Amino acid sequence: MNDRPIPTPALVPAVLVMVGLLGAAALISGGIQRFRLADRYVTVKGVAERDITADVGIWPLRFTSADNDLDRARRGIEADRHRVMAFFARHGIDSTQVELQGLEVTDNQANPYRPGGQDVSRFILTMTLVARSRDPQRIAVASQAVGELVAGGVVLSSGPFGGGPTYLFTRLNALKPQMLAEATRNARQAAAEFARESGAHVGSIRRATQGVFEILPRDQAPGINEGNQIQKTLRVVATMDYDLK
Q: What is the pTM assigned to this prediction?
């Protein structure tokens, strides 16, 4: 049996290969570690809210006149239109801001499904006037006094436009920049708090997503519609990804 030792020069390549493999493994391990550290980030949300007041009021007012004679029904609806316009004027609503939305004529005799055995007028005329004002409070006050029209003989009717005024806020674009800036600041503060608790530091923004601006009712209770309230809440949520160092 040959027990002669391997010559020393033959060990050198093997040692170099082993060292190279160990070094490569160390580099690969270090690279993965750095990658994981670089991939650390936090997702936070920043909220900004404002109390706002509607700047436009819209009120569709629908009323009817009925008679067996079409001309008398027409004269009745025209008389009611004058009463409604006078009502708007008494409450400071400009007549130039009142528009005729529609006039409907129904002939009950032409209706095959009309109820029988009832004294129903043949012709029913329905008119809808829409008042618009840049002073929503005028619309609100007038809508509270609608009983004046009923007392004057105007027959009000519900319809597809709803039974009361709608209040709009139209100056959203004027508030967008400052609210987005506030939401971004709030998001960074939330990220800084998270980083402080985890022993890290907030880096740059990785990704930012602007939420949708929402106009909410001031009184957020079941059944409350934002459009029915003059006072509202404007809200936006920004979602931000921050790198952590």
A: 0.75
Instruction: Give the HSE-up count for residue 235: Cα atoms under 13 Å, Cβ half-sphere.
Output: 13
Phi, psi of 116 (to 5 degrees): -90, 160
**Residue length of the chain:** 245
Q: Is 55 helix (H, G, I), strand (E, B) or coil?
A: coil
Summarised one tens digit per residue, pLDDT across range 6-56 is 455 555 455 444 545 455 444 434 433 343 445 688 899 999 999 999 999
Closest CA to 233 of 215, 220, 219: 215
Q: In what helix (H) or strand (E) does residue 100 lie, and over which residues does it extend?
A: strand 98-107
What single-letter amino acid sits at 243? D
The token pair that represents 153 in the structure block: 């003989």
Q: What is the dihedral of CA 19, 25, 28, 31, to 10 degrees?
A: -80
34, 130, 200, 218, 235 from 37: Cα distances, Å: 5, 63, 11, 45, 35
- Give per-residue pLDDT as tens, 112-125: 776 655 678 899 99
For residues 178 and 166, give the distance between their C-alpha atoms in angstroms, rounded to a whole number.
Answer: 27
Query: Closest Cα to residue 108, out of 98, 92, 121?
Result: 121
Distance CA 41, CA 56 (A): 44
On the 0-12 / 13-18 / 19+ scale of CB atoms within 10 A, 71 is exposed
